[in-house]
Amino acid sequence: MLAANRKSVIDAVQTVLSADLSCSKADFQTEGVTIHKAEIREGRFRFPVREQSLSIVTMGKGAVISCSADRMEWAQKHLGSLTRDQLFSVHTLSKIESLVKQDGQLLAGPDQKYVCSVNDAADFAIPEGITISVQDRSTIAGLYTHTAFPHALSFNPNSPRPDRLAAVAEYGGIIVGIAGASEDCELMWQIGVDVLPEFQSRGIGKALVGKLTRALFHEGIVPYYSASLSNMQSRQLAVSLGYWPAWIQIYAR
Questions:
Q1: Nearest Cα to Cα of residue 113 among 20, 244, 216
Q2: What is the pLDDT at residue 229?
């Protein structure tokens, strides 16, 4: 099973990231910084491909940079000799921000990405009075009228990263929370969750993500979860369900 244990999940992550960053799996275990020309490879994440691109990823050892051809020389000169910690320092990020700003772009992140395996998944409780159901691709579009859950669903039936599964929390017949899984690539789907403000801090978000995580395992998919480094509540939710930090990413958009 693809997501059975931590080793298989890490292999899946490296497979996707190496396609996304036009590098090899070995680059993620290499000390220092490696720089690669961005290419469109099969198996990559299905996010928009920008003509002028720059993405930086670390899985904890070294760091991998992927950028468009026009930025290769600059990256080699200013970033190629740095350590991982120097690359992710405020000073260096400010320098990269100045570069992409010249092309009308912003530097997004750092975002912490989490993944989970079947063996690592933690138990969760469904709060009293709450019912949770799982909807698949055949009915998920019916949730698009519920616009109060923008982090859970794309609300776009023609998205290149279509919504595939959703866990729906109801209280007294009213939808109070949704967790959705988007097909970001063949091997990994991203989970996003929203709970109405008046129902937050009751464990509903954790129950939704926990339920959806198990549904993705049933599909043979590796679930992943993204949070900004400053979003402590979101990061703690992931960890409480057995997710672990797999990579950190910065990118120009």
A1: 244
A2: 87
Indicate whether 1 pLDDT > 80. no
Contact 56, 249 (CB under 8 A): yes
DSSP character for 141? G
Enter the CATH code of domain 130-243: 3.40.630.30
Distance CA 113, CA 246 (A): 6
What would the pLDDT profile of 13-67 be if each residue is shown by its tens digit? 999 999 999 999 999 999 999 999 999 999 999 998 888 999 999 999 999 999 9
C-alpha to C-alpha distance for 175 and 202, rounded to whole angstroms? 15
**How much is the pTM?**
0.94
Query: Where along the chain do the CATH 3.40.630.30 domains lie?
Result: 130-243
Q: How many CB atoms lie within 10 A of CB 218?
A: 12
* CA–centroid distance for 228 within its chain: 10
Other CB atoms within 10 A of residue 35 CB: 19
User: What whole-number distance in Å separates Cα of residue 171 and Cα of residue 87?
Assistant: 47
Contact of 70 with 52, CB cutoff 8 Å: yes
The span from the CA of 108 to the CA of 252, in Å, is: 6
Count CB neighbours of 26 within 10 A.
Answer: 10
Q: What digits encode the pLDDT tens for the residues 87-128?
A: 999 999 999 999 999 999 999 999 999 999 999 999 999 999
- Spatial neighbors of 128 by CB under 8 A, at least 6 apart, are none
